[in-house]
Specification:
This protein is an alpha/beta fold. The chain contains 16 helices and 15 strands. Strands 5-4-3-2-1-6-7-8-9 form a nine-stranded mixed β-sheet, sandwiched between helices. Helix 9 packs parallel to helix 12. The longest helix is centred in the C-terminal third of the chain and has 16 residues.
């Protein structure tokens, strides 16, 4: 059986953020194709993070790489110093303080390379570009190195800064190229970003792996709009202006309508204040099963004003057959769905008009529910991961035809034969 070692800053789960949902979908797919998955969870205070109850659905084994440093509010790449924290059970608090002061820490790249060597991994998968430096010391002779970028980091940073939000990646275009250069296979989350990454890395194979999700239609049970999101700055910077403008227009025309908000974004103080003065705003918080939130609301809104990559929650909404209104930013990577799978609203007034009609016109809503399901066929795992399979399948073929794992072809040979 082929072995894949996955380094990720979070656990895979369908109950959490879009990134964790994406990881869960990919790992479930890889296991179904014959991979044994070892997840290396890298994070600040990793040992204190609770494993999701469903993690065993996606991985065969879990290890932790607890990073040193302190959490910063701005950027994931700056949250983690690439040093390994010592085990608290071994060292006293005073010893840990001395360790921090003297800088006597283990390089996380060394630690991770030992994990890969011990696993005898056939594929090493890095989840997010900012963790790429940790593969610097991994032996590459018989290991396929793969990175799932999620975003084009320097372009995302530029977009955030244009919206007066702090940059996350903290890297230039040239630095991002250096991060991605060692990999044999670079994965983009949508076609537009694939083109950008391919231009940045002309000698690399850059493929698209969108988000895979099987369709599961849910019913409309109440006159409400639903917004789903994590407590991320991009979600907060989008839902608050929506409430201040579009929602007020909707409330004036549909006084009995509800706005249901789901996810950790409900922890935001500004959102809590808005709900305190408007009893038609319902904060549902984090729910046990994300899929269940789509069973009930009349329509889903994605009023994002800033962002990049692929909006997983928009994909989920369409796959559950929900009539959906999305902003142009939310539609990034899914532009073929504008007017075909969902309504695209370019202004607060357009958003309000579309939402009111979906709330009050059942026939119109049914048209968009059917359109959502038809468009969501593209998210079927076989379609969404076709390019990924074509790139990695030769590994399985080499293993099944070779008497020894060391007979596997080199990574570049595997890619050339895909």
């Amino acid at each position: 059986m082929l072995k894949i070692t996955v380094l990720s800053p979070y656990y895979p789960s369908f109950q959490n953020s879009g990134s964790a949902t994406r990881l869960a979908s990919i790992l479930r797919y890889l296991r179904s194709t014959g991979f044994r998955v070892h997840l290396v969870f890298a994070g600040w205070k990793a040992c204190r993070q609770r494993k999701p109850a469903d993690v065993q659905m996606f991985v065969d084994r879990v290890s932790m790489l607890e990073m040193a440093g302190r959490r910063l509010p701005a950027a994931p790449s700056q949250c983690l110093e690439f040093l390994v924290r010592p085990r608290r059970s071994i060292l006293s608090r005073a010893a840990i303080s001395a360790w921090r002061w003297l800088g006597r820490s283990q390089d996380a790249g060394d630690a991770f390379s030992r994990i890969v060597a011990r696993d005898r991994a056939d594929v090493v998968w890095i989840d997010h570009t900012y963790l790429a430096p940790l593969i610097a010391k991994v032996r590459r002779d018989r290991t396929l190195l793969v990175v799932d970028t999620h975003d084009v980091v320097h372009l995302r940073d530029a977009d955030l800064q244009r919206s007066s939000l702090p940059a996350e990646g903290g890297m230039t275009r040239e630095e991002e190229i250096q991060h991605l250069e060692p990999f044999d296979l670079v994965i983009a989350i949508q076609n537009e970003e694939q083109k950008v990454l391919q231009e940045m890395l002309p000698d690399k194979r850059v493929i698209v792996a969108e988000h895979a999700l099987e369709t599961c239609p849910r019913r409309c049970r109440r006159k409400s709009l639903c917004f789903v999101g994590s407590n991320h700055s991009t979600n907060v910077a989008s839902i608050l202006p929506f409430i201040a403008d579009s929602w007020q227009q909707i409330r004036a025309r549909c006084p009995d309508a509800l706005l249901e908000i789901v996810g950790s974004v409900c922890q935001n103080a500004g959102l809590a204040a808005a709900a305190a003065i408007d009893d038609r705003i319902v904060l549902r918080g984090v729910v046990p099963n994300t899929a269940d939130i789509y069973d009930g609301p009349a329509a889903v809104i994605c009023p994002l004003l800033v962002g990049s990559g692929l909006k997983i929650k928009l994909v989920e909404s369409l796959a559950h057959g929900k009539a959906t209104v999305a902003s142009p930013i939310a539609a990034q990577g899914l532009t073929t769905g504008i007017g075909a799978g969902f309504v695209c609203a370019k202004s607060p007034s357009e958003f309000a008009n579309a939402a009111v009609r979906l709330l009050t016109d059942g026939e119109y809503r049914n048209v968009w529910e059917r359109a959502a399901l038809a468009y969501a066929a593209r998210f079927d795992p076989e379609a969404a991961y076709r390019e990924l399979w074509q790139a990695i399948a030769p590994c399985l073929h080499a293993m099944s035809n070779g008497p020894d794992r060391h007979a596997i072809a080199t990574p570049m040979t595997l890619l050339e034969t895909a």
